[in-house]
Amino acid sequence: MSRLLVTGASGMLGRAVAARLVADGHDVRTLQRSASRVAGAHDIGGSITDAGCVRSALRDRDAVVHLAAKVTITGPLAQFEEVNVGGTRLLLDEARAAGVARFVHVSTPSVAHHGRSLTGAGAGPADPGHARGSYARTKATAELLALAADDPAGLRVIAVRPHIVWGPGDTQLVGRIVDRARSGRLPVLGDGAALIDTTYVDNAVDALVAALDADVAAYGSPYVVTNGEPRPVVELLAGICAASGVPVPRRHVPAGLARAAGSVLDVAWRTFPLAGEPPLTRFVAEQLSTAHWFDQRRTRDALGWTPLVGLDEGLERLAGWTARQAPAVAP
Amino acid sequence: MTGASRPPADVLAAGGIDPRWSRTLEVGPRSWHLLDNGPTLDAEPVGTLLCVHGNPTWSFLWRRLLAAGARAERPWRVVAVDQLEMGYSERTGEQHRLAGRVADLGALTDHLGLAGPVVTVGHDWGGLVSLGWALDHPDLLAGVVLTNTAVHHEPADTLPAPLRVATARGVLPVGTVTTPAFLETTLALAHPRLEPAVADGFRAPYRTAERRSGIGGFVADIPAAADHPSRPELDRIAAGIPDLDVPVLLLWGPRDPVFSARYLRDLRERLPHADVHRFEGAGHLVVEDADVAGAVLRWLDTRDAPDAPTASDEPYRALGATLEERAGDDGTALIELAGPRSRRVTWAALAARTEQLARGLAASGVRPGDRVALLVPPGADLTAVLYACLRLGAVVVVADAGLGVQGLTRAVRAADPTVVIGIERALVAARWLRWAPTLVSAGPLRAGVARSLGVSASLDDLAALGRSSTEELAWPNPDADAAVLFTSGSTGPAKGVVYTHRRLAAMRDVVARTYGIGPDSPLVAAFAPFVLLGPALGATSASPDMDVTSPGTLTARALAEAVRAIDAAVVFASPAALRSVVRTADGSELAALADVRLFLSAGAPVGLDLLEAAATLMPSAHAHTPYGMTEALVVADMSLDELRDLGAGDGVCVGRPVAGVRVALSALDAGGEPTGAPDHQAGVTGEVLVAAAHVKDRYDALWVTQQASARDAGWHRTGDVGHLDPDGRLWIEGRLAHVLVTADGVRTPVGLEQRAQTVDQVVSAAVVGVGPRGAQQVVVVVQPEVWSHGPVVADPVLAAAVRAALDGTAVAAVLVVEQLPTDVRHSSKIDRTRVAAWAERVLAGERARL
């Protein structure tokens, strides 16, 4: 049994990681602003930018899985920097001071993405100067900080980059797709043929747990985690819509036009006090019209991990979950 | 005046040049800069490569050779000098003459104390300087490598056009010194374009007019005129090199406006023992455009390896022997059916015509070993002139129109014939695309046309000339070159394939032996290579009324007519031709086809359905599909009966090797490379290797390709991938170039495509990989029965059906296209390379057309 801290356990992935670690018999503490609702975990409510909170959360811990981040698509850069960069720096400093042995930093492949297609890419170096959007840029800075803190004689740090994590209860990808599909606002960009790889939530959980236990030789580097099953984006959207019981998108919009529209809306949402999220941002338009898939061989070797839940199986589980929710949301 | 200096660090870094290789050296009054990897070698070098650049480059040109030579095992010391007034060597403003350059280089190597063995390597005018050095140092010399260079100009010869401009009075100083125009023009000749850092590396020593003075001096030293001061040295070198008794390697970039094909021809004539490799697509800067360093080291390595035994114990009988024996036979040798008229030629007439043409060709100056391109459609004319060339010992170049004009031009130019014999259409192309110096028309031309095309004679003229000649013709040496055929070019440009007389004769024998074809089995051939074999086999032959370059034009009626005309026992047809016959059959041809005893279909995989359908038209015939390739026309054979009993497997079963042919496999490793030693173990997927007396002698002017294909002594690597089953049958799984390497391992396309084609609505399928090798994703591109202008990504139902059919292989995407592209020659092999390139773009979110 290890004594572990999971930050950001109120999100879909963080909650699932905490629950798995509890089930594996570990002593699990969580740190996030709202309740984790993970049975058997000890919640500490607070922000990773609060030094007092962070210090008490890290007391007597052997290892940390750091998921907490500001993940929204829009918002002022300063907020992203405060949480994603400042919070990570604070956690690393305090973890070192507390004598924590292992630190699993959860990152994203978009830290190394310049907006062009990634086809069979490896885990390139994080690049805050060229990453797209405030989230990716601040996450890139955070990953560089984290990996720079890796110390063979002290705190060991590993960065894991799950790509597009989805599953039952996901509000990020599945939630947005379902909302837009339901209101008829989910177009397919271009041919919808761009190959996109995603990660079913259970596989991401397995990978993070594997990272905690990985050979120390694997530490000090970033690893991309996906299902290793890229699909044309139109096929993915159709699969998620079908599993979620909403209409499958049929409207094709030229990819270039969508990117341009996204840029305009980005500016509008930055300039004017508009509510909620823009219907389309340039970042999202790029994500949906360029390929993103990765060479997984290095990750699988280093973590001793393989994805157990295939894409089709994941979609079936999502459909099952949707069916179980249906009575509750029916009018 | 400026002495030699070392290049700035950033220039060396741009070329990946180890700074320790760069040094300056004072030799007498001369001040040199040179690159020398000697100080960094870990082991005793095998020898030294002495590299001499041309104008206006510098030793930077040889940077990859320096790096390649500095390998751990069997390293070569590479010394690349900057010629005086060039690169970073001295600038004195002196005009150096060729003899002086040769002598200065000798003084430098004396100073270096170069011990043997030395192999010279030269490019452009550096080739000439290196040859001068080679002639002066016979004791040290172990070999000569030349790249796009020339040794001789007849004073009457015109200079290459770009140099004529450069040497014109008034242009010379402006073009070469005052402005960097000559330098920039040369750098612009690279294919593909030079990386900016590399181009800057070439420019670095020539930044000012003063530093460029040597470029002008070099151009001014080109000894074009008979009274030029460098002429005597040029003549000495030109006269001396035929006596060089060391191995020679000629590496050539054909897209060179300066040193065009005639200079390569001149070098080959002077150095007939040279190994030659033309890098198709490369140009004047061949050292930049192609892997010259790899080729040189490979060549040096093979110098030490013993040659594979090639001697054959089989008795030899010339391909044309039958024709001569039947010179008194009035029976039918061949019938040509074309349009409304047909032409019957007796054995006696064919033999006489062949003899006359052979003598006529000889009398008009064609010598044994000269190359003659035949651009004549199959028929009596082609047959006669082909056997005439073989009789004389002229090497026939048989390029078919199926390659397309561009492919045909590339092929003919690569073979570099001295004579083209063609129909009018081919002669027009031959004239304007400059395929050969001498043109002969197959049929009579109007006088005006003949004159405007510069056609010297017609076949009738040659025959007339032959009738008046009494010269006794000797039969050619069995091991001399006899023919150059071409691959279909479905994976890269078509390659020339050289056969000797002995190997052609062996090909005849394997066909005769395997299919029992001889005087008692008249044959109808609607498949190009076999049209020509009838007279060699002693079989009466007929070519049906069709456009042989377009196999889909053969109708059932035309086939029946040809069979009826000679009472044929054997029918050869490509799958596309056979498909067309089946499609156009209406029952009226059944009587004529009833007595055919054997039909063969080859050139591409033949489906069971097609063979069955053809068999109903020829009910008494045994159906066979030979498997082979341009490099070995018959390798294995499969009968319809056997095919019927065979279940599905991974790939297309092509049957067992025929008598006299050995087949082995070189297993693919985890990276998809055929690294296994030749082996016969069943179930192991590898590259198919063939050994037989009728395998090609070599690829033409493709030394590197030939080495790669013959790297296992005695075997030819086919580029096909497949496996043997426990009964010794060979299954073909695709082309080596089309093998996929996924994260889950190696995949071959044909078996997967067959499974995709079992899905309803799918007419044909191509399985290709996208992404980097080792992490490739499998993509299935299907052509549906009905194409509805729909989206390129298959609908979920079709995608699911295809994925289910390919169970066990993860499929990233199923795409739908109206039509899958196929090769030009057979219109049946899917062009997977093109499909893969298209899928790569589409699946990256780009717009692309297939």
TrEMBL record, chain A:
Q: Which Gene3D superfamilies match?
A: NAD(P)-binding Rossmann-like Domain
| SUPFAM superfamilies, alphabetized | NAD(P)-binding Rossmann-fold domains (SSF51735)
Q: Which residue numbers delimit the NAD-dependent epimerase/dehydratase domain?
A: 5-215
Looking at the Swiss-Prot or TrEMBL record, what is one Pfam family this protein matches? Epimerase
InterPro entries, from UniProt?
Epimerase_deHydtase (IPR001509), Lipid_A_modif_metabolic_enz (IPR050177), NAD(P)-bd_dom_sf (IPR036291)
PANTHER family listed in its UniProt record: BIFUNCTIONAL POLYMYXIN RESISTANCE PROTEIN ARNA, SHORT CHAIN DEHYDROGENASE_REDUCTASE FAMILY 42E, MEMBER 2
Q: What is this protein called?
A: Nucleoside-diphosphate sugar epimerase
Q: Whose protein is this, by species? A: Cellulomonas xylanilytica
UniProtKB/TrEMBL annotation, chain B:
Sequence ranges assigned to domain AMP-dependent synthetase/ligase in this UniProt record: 330-695
Which stretches make up the AB hydrolase-1 domain? 48-290
Is Transferase given among the entry's keywords? no
**Which BP terms does GO give this entry?**
fatty acid metabolic process
Q: Which Pfam families match?
A: Abhydrolase_1, AMP-binding
Alphabetized, the UniProt keywords read: Ligase
Q: Which SUPFAM superfamilies match?
A: Acetyl-CoA synthetase-like (SSF56801), alpha/beta-Hydrolases (SSF53474)
Which top-level group of life is the source organism from?
Bacteria
InterPro entries xref list: AB_hydrolase_1, AB_hydrolase_fold, AMP-binding_CS, AMP-dep_synth/lig_dom, ANL_N_sf
Q: Which GO terms describe its molecular function?
A: medium-chain fatty acid-CoA ligase activity
* Keyword Ligase carried by entry: yes
Query: Family assignment?
Result: Belongs to the ATP-dependent AMP-binding enzyme family.
Protein name as annotated:
Acyl-CoA synthetase
Species the sequence originates in: Cellulomonas xylanilytica
User: Which lineage?
Assistant: Bacteria, Bacillati, Actinomycetota, Actinomycetes, Micrococcales
